[in-house]
Amino acid sequence: MSYEKVICALERLGLSGPEALIYVYLEAKGPNVIEDIERELPIEELQLRLSLENLKKKKIVNSTVKHTSIFQALPFEKALELLVQANMITTRNIEQNRAKILSKWETIIQDDKSTNPSPRKDKTAC
Hints:
Elements: H1 3-12, H2 17-29, E1 32-33, H3 34-40, H4 45-57, E2 61-65, E3 69-73, H5 76-96, H6 98-111
Antiparallel strand pairs: 1-3, 2-3
Helix pairs in contact: 1-2, 2-4
C-alpha cells in the first residue's frame, strides 16, 4: 500500500490531511524533532504544531522533552485501533441520539417549509 493510500485511510478515520501526513512521516522515519519534520514536510510551522498537539491528544503520537521535544508515532496497528475505537464511539452516540435528531429534523422541516437552507455563518464546529 502506498503512503497516499494510508494517508487517505487515516483521513477517513478522522485525521486531518496534515495530521495524517505527519503521522505517516513519523511512523516511517522514526522519532524526530519538530525542526526536521518542518524541513521535510510541506506544512507551515503553526499548522505543524497544531497538528502535533492534536495527534498527541488522540494518543497516536508521543513526545519526550530533553533539550527539544522529540515526537514519535505509535505503531500503525495501535494507532488504527485507537482511531477505529473513536469512530465507533461517535457512531454509538449518533445511534443513541437517533430519535432526538430525527425529531429535531422533523420540527425544522415543519417550521421552515417556506425558506431555503443557507450556509452556516459560523464556520466553527457544530
